[in-house]
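Input:
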Amino acid sequence: MKHRKLTVFTSTAVPLPDENIDTDQIIPARFLKATTREGFGENLFRDWRYNPDGTPKTEFVLNNPRYSGEILVVGKNFGCGSSREHAAWALVDYGFKAVVSSFFADIFKGNALNNSLLPIVVPEAFLQKLLTMVQEHPETKITVDLPKQTVSVEGTDLIHGFDINPYKKACLINGYDDIDYLMSLAGDIAAFEKARKQKFL
Amino acid sequence: MKNQPKTIIDKLWDAHVVRQEDGYPAVLFIDAHLVHEVTSPQAFDGLRARGLPVFRTDRTWATMDHNVPTKDQHLPIKELLSRKQVEMLRNNCEAFGVRLYGLGHPWQGIVHVIGPELGITKPGMTIVCGDSHTSTHGAFGAMAFGIGTSEVEQVMASQCILQYKPKTMKIEVNGKLGTGVVSKDIILYIISKLSASGGTGYFVEYAGDTICSLSMEARMTICNMSIEMGARGGLIAPDETTYAYMKGREFMPKGDEWEKAVAYWKTLPTDEGASFDRVETFRAEDIEPMITYGTNPGMGIGISGSIPVPADLPSENDRKSLEKSLKYMGLTPGQRILGQRVDYVFFGSCTNSRIEDFRLAAQILKGRKKAPTVEAYLVPGSYQVMEQAKREGLDRVFAEAGFELRGAGCSACLGMNEDKIPAGKYCVSTSNRNFEGRQGPGARTMLASPLTAAATAIRGVVTDPREFL
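Output:
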């Protein structure tokens, strides 16, 4: 599957300072019965976003007209819990291109990268500054520069670098996915299987 | 450096690296791929779109568990979307030649229960599944971890996955467990000490004499919850207990092959002098029956304890998290957890739905009755566990206590089927996650062992199982 390409983008951001947001909050299990990747955005953060009768919970940030954008700024350990890739699909389907936090759960991070959703890890102090700035000034514009690996706030000197594996970076910039790479290794895989002594495994 | 001492984690990793290029993640060969209905449809579609087959059908097994009803399993599934998803798995497995142990098959069950039960799970393997509790299989000395659906597709296409080498952590537990303290309490205790994110970036080896003294089923409960502290996975080195459990199972090597396999498995344990990136040590004597009070599995306390008070916490973020959790749970800071009203009790999930778990529950429930105010789900992890429970007469013990033994599946652990906990109700659950809404929108989950769940079911309030032992 070919993915959208990510390079440099500038956007306002949505602040969600809660820590340990698990994938059951991002997309509850009852919505995992769909068999395609599309349409999960409408149920993103379903139980935080809507009352049981379907009316919006006005206090939740996605229902606050002051906040919008392609960047989600969240508290640490975002995406913990279930491995459901539906969480990444829901964030992408809703319109996010990047999630900024001080710490991501491993499986979520991998799922995000496999769906052109950039998980950006910044130090806790920088994250808190960013959260405060976005909360107090919803018009704050953030620029993500993937080639340079920086996240910065427009009109300020606030800027920070972030790490990304060079292979994954190339995948995101070019819209490649891992199967393209794996399929190119058929010879290596066959050689590995042949050379293996433990046939009982 | 041939003689450099290695951890079991390093040995397993090194034995599966197909290729490692600079700047690239490692290409890791996968020995067993377990598939279920919820995280596979998009992966099968991906293969179709590329015109690819499932590369190694002999390394792929499928079952139905997340989305299946636990009552009337012989009838068509009532809920339309669930039925469609289950039918899609059946069609995909037929089209791609993947073995399926579906509803009605005597090997059907929760993917992490049937893997070990059938002998698919072996020491020295890499095992993946589109489910975070794949770490369960680590109990056998396998490197097992959960993956997303894109990775499910990768494994189907190439039998390989791209991975970054995790850091290693040894968690040692030594000493003698007290009465009424079981493996679920050990892991809830560890997570309460290390936090719900404390293991992120690590692969864990559980060791120490307490761990070594545990049965395979108890070891599975511990490895199962590795992900609840964020760890990539958790494993326990194979030993005689492991071999005794495995021998003769369906997919195990037989005869000479078995002997050869055991000889290899004996080379796997961590070498003397091997170093871990991190070591944590706990004393078994410090652990009492555990229960969670909050909305992540790190929020656990000893059952005789009190709920923490936000003002006592050092950081603003921690105070806010705790306040939010307690508000959701409807619990009061400083409140004793014993005596808290409970409306539901759930026995089941890949954490605690094996025959030993039901034996533990029966030990307390035998000759007693559940409180009339409590509703209960009693859901075995597999068809085989259900049959075994019946052979042992446990179903009668449960029936006399007021419980009904259901069919196998994930059930109220995640509430994808109709087994849900209603909003605002309290459930003591032997499962693995107490996240908001996990067992149904608004449900309030308290995680505990099968012993604590049984004692609580009798009284209708959170009860110390030691009262009955």
